[in-house]
């Protein structure tokens, strides 16, 4: 493994083709890079260190198929920023990340935690994120999206992929064609969703006040949530706008 000294604002840049990349947490002040695979293919990658930034990329002229037998493992400090672009490789981050700019074709993206702002785009890869404290913009064609804890704002667009959100505190905008949208517990201030044939299933905090505009042309609407009652003011007031053509809408 090669070690590179970095300062208080570490950043990694990854630009490879068909290579899986694992990023794990290390100590402060250094970034470690380990590339495993056939020796003749290892020479097709280059590592550049400039200040707080470490870049791992395929050399110019390398064909897209090169790198399938290669694995890259990075050891970085917590709250490192990430810029990554791959063709078919998976990206796995078990370390808390600060800001992220990720573009993947058919690979999956796994993030344990995002404290800053993120933008992720995939074609057919799935996106899984544990916790988001900042904000996120996600775009995918046929990949599924799952976020376990959303503390900030989110904008999510899919074609046929499903969207699953856990505990959701921020403002959310989701758009999908045929994917389903499921929210385990929504306690934010705004939820806006649009779908063609996808269903919405949203869990609400008991007693919260919702100003809702819900439209479905041929789908079914069900309100199974408990409404606020008595003289107590609702603890949370939110705006919800949902529109679907043939999908069902359920509030719990």
List keywords for this structure.
252 residues; mainly beta; Pectate Lyase C-like; 2 domains; 1 helix
In short, what is this structure?
This protein has 252 residues and is mainly β.
How large a portion of the residues is in β-strands, by DSSP E? Answer: over 45%
List the total number of helices: 1
Computed CA radius of gyration, to the nearest angstrom: 21 Å
Give the low-confidence spans: none
Helicity, as a percent range: under 10%
Given the C-alpha coordinates, what overall shape results?
A: elongated
Element pattern in H and E: EEEEHEEEEEEEEEEEEEEEEEEEE
Mean pLDDT: 92
Q: What is the straight-line distance between the termini?
A: 51 Å
Structural class: mainly beta
**What's the domain count?**
2
How many E strands? 24
Describe it.
The structure is a single chain. By secondary structure, this protein is an all-beta fold. The chain has 2 domains: 1-123, 3 Solenoid (Pectate Lyase C-like); 126-252, no CATH class. It contains 1 helix and 24 strands. Strand 5 (45-50) and strand 6 form a beta hairpin. The longest helix has 4 residues, at 39-42. It is elongated and about 60 Å long. It starts with a strand and ends with a strand.
């Amino acid at each position: 493994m090669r070690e590179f000294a970095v300062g208080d604002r570490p950043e990694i840049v990854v630009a490879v083709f068909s290579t899986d990349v694992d990023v794990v947490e290390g100590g402060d002040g250094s970034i470690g890079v380990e590339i495993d695979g056939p020796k003749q293919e290892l020479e097709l990658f280059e590592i550049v260190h400039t200040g707080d930034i470490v870049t791992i990329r395929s050399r110019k002229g390398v064909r897209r198929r090169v790198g399938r037998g290669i694995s890259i493992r990075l050891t970085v400090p917590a709250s490192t920023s990430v810029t990554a672009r791959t063709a078919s490789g998976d990206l796995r981050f078990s370390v808390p990340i600060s800001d992220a700019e990720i573009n993947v074709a058919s690979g999956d993206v796994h993030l344990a935690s995002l404290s800053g702002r993120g933008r992720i785009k995939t074609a057919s890869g799935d996106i899984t994120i544990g916790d988001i404290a900042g904000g996120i913009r996600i775009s995918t064609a046929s990949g599924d999206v799952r976020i376990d804890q959303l503390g900030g704002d989110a904008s999510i667009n899919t074609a046929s992929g499903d969207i699953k959100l856990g505990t959701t505190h921020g403002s959310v905008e989701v758009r999908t064609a045929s994917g389903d949208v499921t929210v385990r517990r929504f306690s934010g201030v705004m939820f806006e969703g649009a779908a063609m044939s996808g269903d919405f299933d949203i869990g609400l905090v008991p007693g919260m006040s919702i100003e809702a505009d819900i439209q479905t042309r041929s789908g079914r609407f069900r309100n199974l949530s408990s409404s606020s009652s008595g003289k107590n003011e609702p603890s949370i007031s939110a705006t919800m706008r949902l529109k679907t053509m043939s999908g069902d809408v359920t509030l719990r």
